Amino acid sequence: MTTVDRPLRIVRTYHPRRGRLSGRHFDALERLAQRYAFVPGEPVDVLEIGSGMGDATAEMAAADPDRRYLAVEVHTPGVANLLRLIEARGLSNLRVAAVDAIDLLHADIPAGSLAAVHVFFPDPWPKARHHKRRLIVPWRVALVRDRLRGGGLLHCATDDAGYALAMLETLDADPGLRNRFDGFAPRPDHRPVTKFELRAVRDGRPSFELMYERA
């Protein structure tokens, strides 16, 4: 399906980790995983890469019922928690995929189909030797852009100043993306505060927003 080349040797943007599961998480996975799982071929409007524990994702989907959301997360407790939130809030417009987002974009998301892609507080991989693992690097951005429809939005946020500048440089250099603002974007009121963002506020770190649309 893809029209974008990818490196022959794939470097993942995350370290696989299972994490500790509570009884309610086991219950959610057992009862709800199939019910709310993404089925390849289903239409998607908004893709969230790395939904964490899912609180912000569920809030956005609840406030935007006319668009179909897909949350991609590989951390098992986060998947389980989001499944519980979907059930508790009765969300019919949110599905979950516990897979690598880049693999999903390549195999299961048609070109020009997404209205928005959200990348909120991804791992900054601060050491130089790990920068290849960052999500916002040219070839991964090209893939995301290819899956956006015309005018579709790539919305990123980070509390790592170095990564923010690298994101700005990478996104500005992509020939098919246009910055909606002059540099960093103002924080939109509609984006819920995430747990990572709360931690940054507590530690005195500012957050940076970037909003680019497919030209």
Structure description:
This protein is an alpha/beta fold and 215 residues long. Helix 1 packs across helix 3 (76-89) and helix 2 packs parallel to helix 3 (76-89). It starts with 22 loop residues before the first helix and ends with a strand. The protein has helices at 23-32, 55-63, 76-89, 101-108, 138-147, 161-173, 195-202, and strands at 46-49, 69-72, 94-97, 114-120, 148-158, 177-179, 208-214. It has a seven-stranded mixed beta sheet with strand order 3-2-1-4-5-7-6, sandwiched between helices.
Short description:
The chain is of the alpha/beta class and 215 residues long.
Q: Which characteristics define this entry?
A:
215 residues; alpha/beta; Rossmann fold; seven-stranded mixed beta sheet; 7 helices; 19% strand; globular
Describe the SSE topology.
Layout: H1 23-32, E1 46-49, H2 55-63, E2 69-72, H3 76-89, E3 94-97, H4 101-108, E4 114-120, H5 138-147, E5 148-158, H6 161-173, E6 177-179, H7 195-202, E7 208-214
Largest sheet: 7 strands, mixed
What is the overall shape?
Answer: globular
Distance between the termini: 21 Å
H/I helix tally? 7
Q: Would you list the SSEs in sequence order as H and E?
A: HEHEHEHEHEHEHE
CATH class value: Alpha Beta
Major beta sheet, strand line-up: 3-2-1-4-5-7-6
* CATH topology term: Rossmann fold
**Can you count the beta strands?**
7
- Total domain units: 1
Q: Roughly what percent helix?
A: 25-40%
SS-derived structural category: alpha/beta
Second-tier CATH architecture:
3-Layer(aba) Sandwich
What is the overall pLDDT average? 91
